[in-house]
C-alpha cells in the first residue's frame, strides 16, 4: 500500500482515539457537575456506604464565622453521594477540627450559591430565636430542608414536627387561668424555621434570611467550610462565668405607671435607667441579657422565662411605683423570702437598697418581702431575683428627680454598685 495512504490512515485512527477519550471525559465530568448542582438545590444522591478519602475533607475558615467565598459558586460537596440520613452520615461531612468545637448540639446549614457570601447572626434571645442573614447569594434557593439540627445522636431536618398539648396556665398579665394549646416538639432543637429572600435591584444578588426559633436560649459560635455553616449551641453557663438578666419594666404598648401630669411614663424612665446601667456593665466581664433595650412591648412570661433559660446569677427588674395618694414616696426593693442557688433574695435586696441609698437622695424604704404569687415574674423565677421600685411617679418630689437624665445615671450607678457587691457576697463557685 502507498506509504502516504498508510500515514493518513494512521493519523485518522489516532484522531479518532483522542476524540473518544475526550468525549468520555466530557460526559463523565458533565455527570459530576449535574450531581453537584442537584445537591446544591436540595436533592440528595442515593448511593450509600461510599468510602470517603481524607483528602476530600473540607477545611474550616479563619474569619470568625463570616463567610467570604472568592470562587464562582461553591465547591461541589465531596460527600454528595452519601445521603444525610442520621448523625453519623452528617458527621462524615464535617472536618474534625470543626467537630471538636461543635459539641453535642449544633445546627448545620447548607450554603447557598454565591461568590463572596457573608453571614451575620443576630441573637433574639427574648424569643429564644436567632436570625441569620446571608448576603450576596446568586439564587434564592434556600429552604428549611437545608437546615439540620443535631442533638446528641438525634438528627432533625426541615420544618419541625410537633403534636398539640392542651393545658391550663395563668395569664401573667390578667391573672386569669386560661386554656392554652402548646406544641410538643420532642427533642428537636428548633420550634420553627422561616426563610425569606430579598433581591438587590442593582446587583441582582440576594440576601437570604433564616429566622430559627429554638427550644431555649443558647450561646452561639459560627464556623464554616466551603459547603456548610455550623452553629454550635451551648448553655450560656458553659461559656460565660457571670450572667445577668436586667429587666426594664413595661415597654411599648404597656406604659406602666403614668405621672399625674401625663407627661412622664414609667416605661421611659425604666429604660432610661437601664441604658445608663448598660454603659457601666459593658465595661465588665459579665454576660448581660436585657429583656429590652428599646421601647418594645415585652410580656411578663418571656421576662422570667429568659432568666430561667440562661440560669442567670441575678435577675434584676427595674420599675417605678405609683399610688392613688400623692404623699407615698421613696425607693423600695421587693423580694420573695426564698433561697435560690445558695443566694438569699432577702440579703440580695438589702444590698441593693443600701447601694441605692448611697447614690440617690430619695427616701430609703428598704427591702420589702412580697408573696411571690402576687408578682408574676417573681413567682415564675427560678433564679435569685429582686424587683426595684425606684420611686413614686405619683409623688411630685420623686417624679421631678427621676425624669432628669443625670439623676437616672445616679440610679444606674447605685444598681451597678449593688450588682458588684452581690458578686462579692455570692461569688461563683
Descriptors:
19 strands; 29% strand; Aminopeptidase; disordered N terminus; 429 residues; alpha+beta
Structure summary:
By secondary structure, this protein is an alpha+beta fold.
Strand content: 25-35%
The poorly predicted ranges are 1-6, 18-73
Which CATH-level-2 architecture of the largest domain? 3-Layer(aba) Sandwich
Instruction: Indicate the mean pLDDT.
Output: 84
Radius of gyration: 30 Å
Count of domain modules? 2
- Let me know the CATH homologous superfamily of the largest domain: Zn-dependent exopeptidases
So how many helices? Answer: 10
What is the 3D shape?
elongated
Structural summary, described in words:
This protein has 429 residues and is of the alpha+beta class. The protein folds into 2 domains: 54-234, no CATH class; 238-425, 3-Layer(aba) Sandwich (Aminopeptidase), CATH 3.40.630.40. Helices cover 30% and strands 29% of the residues. It is built from 10 helices and 19 strands. A 6-stranded mixed sheet has the order 13-12-14-19-15-18, with helices on both faces. α5 (266-281) crosses α10 and α7 runs antiparallel to α10. The radius of gyration is 30 Å and the shape is elongated. The protein starts with a helix and ends with a helix. 33% of the residues are buried.
Layout of strands and helices, then pairs:
Layout: H1 3-40, H2 87-91, H3 96-102, E1 105-110, E2 114-124, E3 129-137, E4 147-151, E5 154-157, E6 163-170, E7 177-184, E8 190-199, E9 206-214, E10 219-224, E11 228-234, H4 236-239, E12 243-248, H5 266-281, E13 287-290, H6 300-310, E14 314-321, E15 331-335, E16 339-340, E17 343-344, H7 345-359, E18 364-369, H8 376-380, E19 385-392, H9 396-402, H10 405-425
Parallel strand pairs: 12-13, 12-14, 14-19, 15-18
Antiparallel strand pairs: 1-4, 1-11, 2-3, 3-9, 4-5, 6-7, 8-9, 10-11, 15-19, 16-17
Helix pairs in contact: 5-10, 7-10
Amino acid at each position: 500500500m502507498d506509504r502516504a495512504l498508510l500515514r493518513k490512515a494512521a493519523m485518522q485512527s489516532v484522531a479518532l482515539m483522542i476524540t473518544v477519550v475526550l468525549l468520555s471525559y466530557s460526559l463523565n465530568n458533565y455527570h459530576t457537575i449535574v450531581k453537584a448542582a442537584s445537591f446544591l438545590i436540595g436533592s440528595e444522591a442515593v448511593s450509600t456506604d461510599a468510602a470517603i478519602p481524607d483528602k476530600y475533607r473540607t477545611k474550616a475558615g479563619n474569619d470568625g464565622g463570616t463567610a467570604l467565598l472568592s470562587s464562582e459558586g461553591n465547591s461541589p460537596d465531596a460527600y454528595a453521594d452519601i445521603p444525610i440520613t442520621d448523625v453519623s452520615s452528617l458527621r462524615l461531612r464535617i472536618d474534625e477540627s470543626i467537630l471538636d468545637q461543635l459539641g453535642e448540639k449544633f445546627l448545620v446549614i447548607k450554603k447557598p450559591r454565591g461568590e463572596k457570601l457573608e453571614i451575620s447572626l443576630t441573637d433574639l434571645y427574648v424569643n429564644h430565636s436567632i436570625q441569620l442573614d446571608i448576603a450576596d447569594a446568586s439564587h434564592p434557593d434556600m429552604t428549611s430542608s437545608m437546615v439540620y439540627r443535631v442533638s446528641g445522636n438525634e438528627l432533625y431536618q426541615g420544618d419541625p414536627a410537633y403534636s398539640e398539648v392542651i393545658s391550663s396556665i395563668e395569664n401573667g398579665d390578667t391573672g386569669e387561668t386560661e386554656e392554652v394549646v402548646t406544641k410538643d416538639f420532642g427533642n428537636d432543637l428548633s420550634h420553627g424555621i422561616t426563610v425569606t429572600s430579598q433581591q438587590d435591584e442593582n446587583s441582582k444578588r440576594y440576601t437570604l434570611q433564616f429566622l430559627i426559633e429554638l427550644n431555649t436560649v443558647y450561646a452561639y459560635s459560627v464556623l464554616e467550610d466551603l459547603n456548610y455553616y455550623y452553629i454550635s449551641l451551648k448553655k450560656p453557663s458553659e461559656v460565660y462565668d457571670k450572667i445577668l438578666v436586667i429587666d426594664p419594666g413595661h415597654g411599648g404598648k404597656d406604659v406602666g405607671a403614668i405621672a399625674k401630669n401625663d407627661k412622664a411614663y414609667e416605661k421611659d424612665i425604666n429604660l432610661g435607667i437601664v441604658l445608663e446601667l448598660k454603659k457601666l456593665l459593658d465595661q465588665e466581664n459579665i454576660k448581660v441579657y436585657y429583656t429590652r433595650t428599646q421601647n418594645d412591648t415585652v410580656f411578663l412570661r418571656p421576662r422570667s422565662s429568659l432568666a430561667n433559660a440562661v440560669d442567670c446569677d441575678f435577675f434584676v427588674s427595674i420599675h417605678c411605683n405609683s399610688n392613688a395618694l400623692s404623699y407615698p414616696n421613696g425607693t423600695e426593693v421587693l423580694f420573695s423570702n426564698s433561697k435560690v442557688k445558695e443566694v438569699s433574695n432577702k440579703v440580695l435586696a438589702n444590698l441593693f437598697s443600701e447601694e441605692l441609698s448611697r447614690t440617690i437622695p430619695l427616701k430609703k424604704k428598704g427591702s420589702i418581702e412580697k408573696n411571690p404569687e402576687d408578682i408574676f415574674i417573681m413567682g415564675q423565677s427560678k433564679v435569685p431575683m429582686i424587683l426595684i421600685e425606684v420611686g413614686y411617679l405619683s409623688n411630685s418630689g420623686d417624679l421631678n428627680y427621676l425624669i432628669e437624665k443625670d439623676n437616672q445615671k445616679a440610679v444606674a450607678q447605685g444598681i451597678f454598685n449593688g450588682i458588684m457587691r452581690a458578686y462579692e457576697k455570692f461569688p461563683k463557685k
